[in-house]
Each structure stands twice: as C-alpha cells, then as structure tokens.
Amino acid sequence: MGPNRIRNFCIIAHIDHGKSTLADRMLEMTGTVTAREMQEQLLDSLDIERERGITIKAQAVRMPFTHTDGSEYELNLIDTPGHVDFTYEVSRSLAACEGAILIVDATQGIQAQTLANVYLALEHDLEIIPVVNKIDLPSADVPRVIGEMTTAFGFGADEVLAVSAKDGSGVQELLNAVVDRVPAPKANRDLPLRALIFDSKYDTYKGVLAYVRVMDGAVTANARIRMMATDTQAEVLEVGAFKPTMMKVPGLESGEVGYIATGLKSVGECRVGDTITLARNGASEPLPGYGAQKPMVFAGLYPTDGVDFHELREALDRLQMNDASLSFEPESSQALGPGFRCGFLGLLHMEIVQERLEREYDMDLVVTAPSVGYRVVMSDGSVVEISRPTDLPSPGVIDKIEEPWLEVSILTPSRFVGPMMELINARRGVFKRNEYLDASGARAVGSESMPSSDPRVVIEAQLPMAEVLVDFYDQIKTRSKGYASLDYTFIGFHPAALVRLDVLVAGQLVDALSLITHKDRAYYQGKALVAQLRKLIPRQMFEVPIQAAIGSNIVARETVAAMRKNVLAKCYGGDISRKRKLLEKQAEGKKRMKRIGRVEVPQEAFLAILKMER
User: Fold this and answer.
1) Separation of alpha carbons 29 and 73, rounded Å
2) Residue 132's pLDDT is what?
3) 327: containing domain
C-alpha cells in the first residue's frame, strides 16, 4: 500500500482511562479480529496484564480501514502502558508514530500522567487527537472535561471527540479523524533500508524478533541485514505484521510497522533504539534512536534454597530476553547466600518481575529491601556508582554522596493541597509551584482567583527518589481520599548527608538488612527496624541483642530475652546447695552459649521488614 494510505498512531492516557478497551473496539470495528476471536484486553498478551488490568508491554497491530469516502487505509496502532514506571515504553512508541490519540476519562478528567504524556507527544512533534472516553457512564461530565482539555492544552472544543470505548459510540468517527488528521509517514522507498527497533522479544524458534518501524527503503525475507550500533549481521528468517497475531508478509516498506525475525540468540545484539540496515549497500547514518534507559530501583533476588541459584540465573536470562529494561549481576550475602542484584525501572516493575519469576519459572524467592542507586565522589575526585548499601566506602575516603532526585507533579483537588504540601515537606522535598485548573476554563497561578467549585491543582516539587520509593504514592492516595494522581521524572543527582545504617544480630552484621538513609532520620529508622526484628527473631537459650549502628556508633538496641529452662523442676526437696549448684551450672552454660552461639535470622523477618519499608 502506498505511503499516503498509511497512518501510524498510538494511544496515550493516564492509568485506567480506557486505552486497551478503545484498542479492542477499533480491532472489532475494522474487522481485524472476528467476533469469535474477540476478548477483553486482546492486545494484553501476558496473564499478569489481564489479572492486574494494566498494560505492561507496548503492543502493535495493523488494521485495515475503509474511510467514509470509500478509500482503503492501513492503520498501524501501538497500545502503550499507562503506569509511570513504563514511561520509557511510551516514549519508544511515540518515536515510531506520526500521531497520538490522547484519552481522558469523562469522570476523572485530566490526571498527572495525562499532562506528562502530552508533553512527551509534543516533544516528538506528533499530531494529537484529544478524546473524552467513558461518556456512557452516569457520572460522566463531558462539558467539564472538554473545558479542562481546552484550558490545559489549548485544543479547540470542536477538536475534542467524545467516545465510549465500551459500547463503541463515536469510535467510527475517531477512526475517520485518525485518517484525516494524522499525517502520512514521510516515506523514502528508494533510499537504503533504515528501520527503527522500538521493541524486541525472544522466540525459541525464530531467535530475536525486532519490532520495527521502517523509515527508509524496504526489507524482505532472506535479506542480509546489519544492526548499526552493534555491527551484528544476520539473515532475515521472516518478515511480518501484527494482525494482531504475528502474520508473515512478503516484506515491509518505508512507513510500515512490523517485525523482523533475525535468528539472533541474544537480545543484546539487537538493541531497542538501534537501526537496522542492509549488510551490503546499507545506510551510512543511523536513526536518532533512544537514550539508554538506566535502572532506577535496585533489589537483591535470592533463592530460598541455595541450590536453586543456577535455575534463578537461567530464569533471569530468559526473562531479560523479553524485558530489555531488566538488569542483573551476581552477588553474595552472608545472611542469604548467593543471589543477584537486579535493577528495575520502579517498584511496580520489580513486583512484576518477581511475580513472573515465581509463576512462569516456579522460583521461590526472597527479595531484599529496594534501594536507589547513589553516586559517591571520592576524596581523590573519582566517582563511584553504588547500588547496594554494603558497597558504600568508609567515610574517611568519601568527599560527598549524591542521591537521585525526581521532578514530581501531583494533581489534586484544591482542598487537599495542605496535606500534599505537608507530605512533600516531610519527605525532604522542595516545593516549586502550583497551578490551579478551573473547570470553567479560567487558569490562575498561585492562589489568585481560586474558584469556589474546588478546582484541581497541579503541585510541582522536587524530592529525593529514596523518599518517593517507599510509600509516597500510597500516602498521596490516602491523604487525598483517592483523588490525587502522581507523575515523576528523573532530574539528576544532588549531594546529601547520607549514612549507612547497619543491623547487628548477636554482634553479627546482617548485610541484607543494611540501608542508606539520611543522617537526621537514622535514629528513628534504626529504632523502628530493631523493634520490628525483636518481634520476629525467635528466642534462644541466651539473650540476643539486636542493634542498629552507624559505623561503630550504636544508635538503637532491642534485646530478645532468653528462654529459661526450669532446671529445678526435678528438685522436690533437699539441701539448698544442690539447687544453687544447678543454677550456677545453667548460668555458666548460658555464658558459653552467648559467646559461641549463632542466631539465624528467619526469612519471615526479611519479608516483614520489606513490608515495613514499603
């Protein structure tokens, strides 16, 4: 099909505003899938996506469409995730499109990630089609939401389309609008092949499958191709499109979206953001691609049984083939034995990886408390990046420690501004500004002209990532009675007064419980930590001290009392010296046990500490 009959677009929105449901209706109304094949969340192929009701991986699909004027078109849709942890997936999808459908819930209105996704789309210079979804709900307030969209983004009221992805109302008009408003791709089919890899996955029989948007030239099966970043060559086993299942096609031409089966055995040889060209007479300049995605959250994954270490390595290797954002390296803990230090995009990403390992690969895991990556500037000027507390050098050789900071946007009704500000201050945050969004269309900065209808406010602040990591989102939802939403972006590293807080059980360091915290909070966190551990560590025949320490300074202590065996139970009479002799013998034994005894910290204690930390 000619490039002027192709439209590449994606769907962007806040969490649970109806992206996947709208994609379902489009598939149904274009006849891409039959009524018998149709099911809810058709493009969400992972079981965990269906159970949680969220999109984790971006999915592409090619749809045939007949415009009202009778013309035939090819629509390439990419359904994107909504959760902030997977913003990277959204940005990759936007780079493969010319247009974006922006969905806003007719009951909730604009949310924090609605704003973030619009800015992403504008950065990629995409044509945005604004859509109000869920107009079929009794609580839908379409005029108010259209007013918000015209106020916040400058759309004309006549540009905003009202649809119901559930019953299909307005979806046909939306598809016509995609054809009319989204520009056709700039296709150069006479130039050498250049195809942008926007995602990849591993197939047992076909090797690495590169999901591509062909920018220039064309590619067919049996062609010899080259990855321009890694200089890896491969022979194309198969070329296909998503309809929505993978379907073999003769070739892909510029402007089209599809997949290339490379036969490669490692996803690392076919990186996301790389450019595919022909091995002979290929392009000389690669496409811009994407910036490298660095992990933001780190945690240790350990098998509960040490003999499963190699099985865990194989499971992580296989999982990484379909999730390029997961990173891991082996590490060893005195308390937990051999395991892996893994890097994730966020806490939700970590939970999903853990659940997939347990369900798909039958692993039984212990996960250490999540932490962020720190940057340590040494006295000699060198910089060391650490991802676990035990790697922190001694204070004598450290010039300063820098921690990652985030730019946070909180969208909340104005009556909850006070609790939000209080939360930001309690988490070492720096307030930047707030902006009131008036539902009637007026916009005011600061506290001027605040409407009486309780408008929503965008609060912008900067916070350390470690403070956002634990339970910041839960606190936002709790303090706003569920109305507020959150979005954040990484902005860089800032120096801070940080220390390593260690936990000693019976004088022995438990490295898996160490954490890096702010100096002003070390005492309170140490006190809470040892108090929790005292309830979880089983009693021994000797007393067990549990201490929280910063270097050689003990900042908090709890003691697990010793169990006392009644050695006098068999003494029903007789001389007192016999009883005294038995008690002295017991006391001597307790001293010896305390000196040579070792306390095993149960895994339940690690799990309980993790819950407390989060």
Assistant:
1) 14
2) 92
3) 297-369
